[in-house]
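Checklist before submission:
- one chain only
- standard amino acids only
- sequence pasted in full

Submission:
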Amino acid sequence: MSDPENGNSGPNDDTSLSAITGGIIGDLDRLSNARDGALTLSRQVVRQSANAVRALHRAEHETAELLIGQARALLDQMIDATARHPSLYWAGYVQDAMKEFAEAAITATMLADLPSPAPAALGVENAAYLNALAEAASELRRDTLDALRDDNIGRALALLRRMDDVYAVLITVDFPDAITGGLRRSTDQLRGVLERTRADVTIAVRQHRLERALARFERADGSPL
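Returned file contents:
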């Protein structure tokens, strides 16, 4: 029998603690392996998503579609690997991978003038989706400027409206950053991009109107200025 007064815990306690510790070590080992796998998959998702956005800006639509599909498959693997480990599933790198994938998928729909997919359709969490929405809208600045350089004012105005619509929705989401994953910062960044883009488009539209007015004047006058 154990004798607490003499500090003897009994012959079975060491064996019991060893068994408990052994079980914990086994759990931690599985968690560590899942973490390593999730980190690798997360990096791959982020890389494929970034490459997809780059391809979209270059109008390489087939390449972008392929890369988005690959990112989706990798994301599904990562979600399956972390589903039994909430501490990993809700870790920053898993949510970041969701955000990057969603950004690529949403950007593709915006550039194609299609409705944006919902979080459930993309298989991502709400906070990751909202931040992806803000970043996807910011990505439209590049294509808006490209449209201005091509003198495609209609296209530039359509993209600006899409950016504006996203910002108008995001400013209504008023929850702590701990819930939204720092959405306030993403929305503030979008506002800055939107304001600069609006200024660029406004200047281009005014220039375009001036050129049209001069052209009408020349036709009416019958001689160049």
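Reviewer check: The chain has two domains: 14-124, 126-225.
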